[in-house]
Amino acid sequence: MLNLVFVTGNRHKVSEVKAILGDTVDLQAVALDLPEIQGTLEEITLEKCRRAAEMTGGPVLVEDSALEMHALNGLPGPYVKAFVDTVGNKGLINLLVPHENKTAEAVCTLGYSSGPGAEPIIFQGKLVGQIVPARGVSSFGWEPIFEFDGETLAEMSREKKFGLSHRYKAVVKFRKWLEFQ
Ligand SMILES: O=c1[nH]c(=O)c2ncn([C@@H]3O[C@H](COP(=O)(O)OP(=O)(O)OP(=O)(O)O)[C@@H](O)[C@H]3O)c2[nH]1
Ligand SMILES: [Mg+2]
Question: What is its EC number (predicted)?
């Protein structure tokens, strides 16, 4: 079984990735907030992954999550964490007040590297939904304001979210790729 270190400062990501990977991988989490450059989703994840491989010396997984509002041409994108931490979900909703189009996509960009010096490989998953007034209780980012198929991510059972999320779609691509290694 592959031993893999998941470097992330976010415990919610760890539970979700562990649930999706199941026992196909021995996943150990290292709680570190890696520096994040400005750039495309791929560039940010590649750099996080290179850094994580150098720090741990072995096979690593990292991810970066973005929230792209269609009416804002993709903003706040990878900078969504700064919005959650400063103006909160209410502030995110307010960005869309002047716009009729409330659609947004959650994007998970996952990076895997077999070790220091090995160029990371990227796997991406997307979930298109609507930004709505908060419903449901969750301490994970923007879950209460992201609605998919009539439910916000905060209202959904964990099993349901873990089976349809942007992260699920990225991790499944990674799991399939692993099968052929
Ligand atoms: O409602 C949510 N459902 C999700 O599925 C989800 N995934 C990420 N996020 C939030 O979006 C920002 C991403 O920033 P981010 O990718 O840099 O994450 P992070 O800094 O927390 O961890 P990491 O970078 O150490 O891995 C952070 O505010 C996360 O809390 C989510 N919110
Ligand atoms: Mg981060």
Answer: 3.6.1.66
